[in-house]
Amino acid sequence: MADKPAPTLRAQWLGQQLKRYRDEAGMTLKEAAAYLKRDSSTVSRFEAGLYPPREDDVQELLTLYGVSEEKARASLRKLSLEVWQKGWWEGYARDVDPSIIDYAWIEARATEIQSFNAVVVPGLLQTPTYAHAVIRAVDPGAPDEQIDRWLEVRAIRQQVLFRPRPVCLTTVLDESVLRRQVGGASTAKDQIAHLATQAERANIDIRVLPESIGAHAAPDGSFKVFIMPEPYPDLACIETPAGVIYVENDGISKFTTAFERLYAAALTSEESLAQLRKYA
Length: 280
Known about the structure:
There is one protein chain. The protein is an alpha/beta fold. It is 50% helix and 13% strand. The chain has 12 helices and 6 strands. It has helices spanning 9-25, 29-36, 40-48, 55-64, 70-84, 98-109, 128-138, 144-157, 175-179, 185-198, 252-265, 269-279; strands at residues 112-117, 168-174, 204-209, 223-227, 235-240, 243-248. A hairpin with a 7-residue loop joins strand 4 and strand 5. Helix 2 crosses helix 3.
């Protein structure tokens, strides 16, 4: 039997909001289901993100829960449409981990990305040959055709940096990233030269964290913070061998504080660019 698709992050966000409004209204799943002329299990799946509700269902539930504020209703309406919207990533759904689909969707919606990288260059700034070396190291047994598909996904994701309203990317790179010869000396040299070029773009801020500072605010490694527009919550994420872990709400403050400290300890923009050119 085929595995059921995992709930998307956006469907979970929508479900969380609907559950919050139902709880505030003091209503049960059975009462909400009766209003929609559905069974309780359907509304429960809505709230769990297992089956996202359609726009009409969302609006009817908000009416039932007494949510009259237009801003709140418009936000949930937007999210209910986003849940069902298909993007370029749908064509790669069978080729990549489901968490990467969420990841690509978040990158496409974010207004700003703050990234600390302790091992390799962030995916949005990788050259094709550098990315190939990273992917091959992670999965040495993958067929070439599969790696080509993964590289296509990475290249399309990078377009968020060059669209008419590009995402703002602020990256703090541990100096060891510049010394690690991923893919060999030639590939590493081209990658660092690419970083120096991208650092001159108005929407990209690359800072080098010198090894000479010793211990720093993120001893456990790399992470990202996504600053999102309404109605989406800001969130942080950590990539692991088992997939991407997302942190929201109160938990994000630890990441934003750590990033602020890393950024403050890093070289200035001009010093970082000089360091990139030196390593290249």
